[in-house]
Amino acid sequence: MEHAETTLDEPETTTGIFRSLHTPRELFGRTFTLRQVVFALFLIFCLTPWASPPIALALGLVLAQTVGNPFTSHTKAFTHKLLQFSVIGLGFGMNAHAAVQAGKEGILFTVVSIFGTLFLGYFVGKWLGLSKHVVHLISCGTAICGGSAIAAIGPVLRAKDEEMSVGLGTVFVLNAIALFAFPPIGHALHMSQNQFGLWCAIAIHDTSSVVGAAAAYGNQALEVATTVKLARALWIIPVAIGTAMIFKQKGVKISIPYFIFGFILAMLFNTFAPAYIPAAKALGPVMVNLAKIGLTVTLFFIGAGLSAKVVSSVGIRPYVLGVLLWVVISTTSLYVILHAV
């Protein structure tokens, strides 16, 4: 579950075109800059039917690497809530019976992959000489649900801001790669909708990128991926409790992803309400369409927060840890899914 916490620094170059983009202008009594106009145009495009999650992420990345995000604090605050509402909206397009079946198929993969990733992360991180906090944050982000897991586990660890930034920066970069790479791999391997959805849920960190990649593959893949990923996200709670015990942290507050229960209620409403409320059947497609638009905008905001400075500030060793864990969980789960599902 995507949680954009990275900080975007303003571009250092303010000469030529950059100075023009940053220069305040006035129109109809309102002050604006050209880069704000660029941001607005990109955002408006993300609201149209021509935009897709990968395109939105790409536009955000282009913005971040060129003119910069002029509304960093706003997008940072808005991304988390927008993702939550989008996930709840997707529940209006899902069937509870199919979701239960998908959850049963994914639970064994979930348990094995979570604990296997945490175990492997500990030893690889120790070999790389990284701090225990950074290792645990990246491992939890890889094992459970990316930025949301890091945001929940960080306060339990009493992690420093720079440790949180390293963990978040690592998983967000890998998320961006996965969103573009996974659908072509799935098609090349002729994966079924069910197989691809399950693979996304296990091998991609954040819910936003999981849903984005699965949506690009097909509706059934989207249903499987969302259900399994959200069930996986509930593991934040026991892992947070275990973290507090292992790191001997007392009196810490554990963040519970309550929005997942909103997704479940929406799914139950979509499954059972139409039999009693005829108008409920028409509500589902509207809510799902709004949810997909919300997800597309979410990924645009996330991409806009990944400037070159954010990426480079992480350092090489955390990326090595993140990539190794990601490669192991991706290839292992892919092999098992292709041969067992």
Automatic annotation (TrEMBL):
Q: Which GO terms describe its cellular component?
A: plasma membrane
Q: Where are the transmembrane segments?
A: 37-62, 82-100, 106-125, 137-158, 164-184, 196-218, 230-247, 259-277, 289-307, 319-338
* Annotated protein name in UniProt: Putative sulfate exporter family transporter
Has keyword Transmembrane helix? yes
Instruction: Indicate where this protein is primarily found.
Output: membrane
Spell out the subcellular localization from the entry.
Cell membrane
Which key words are in the record? Answer: Cell membrane, Membrane, Transmembrane, Transmembrane helix
Keyword Membrane, does the record have it? yes
Stored InterPro entries: UPF0324_pro
**Membrane topology field:** Multi-pass membrane protein
Q: Which Pfam families match?
A: Cons_hypoth698 (PF03601)
Annotated family: Belongs to the UPF0324 family.
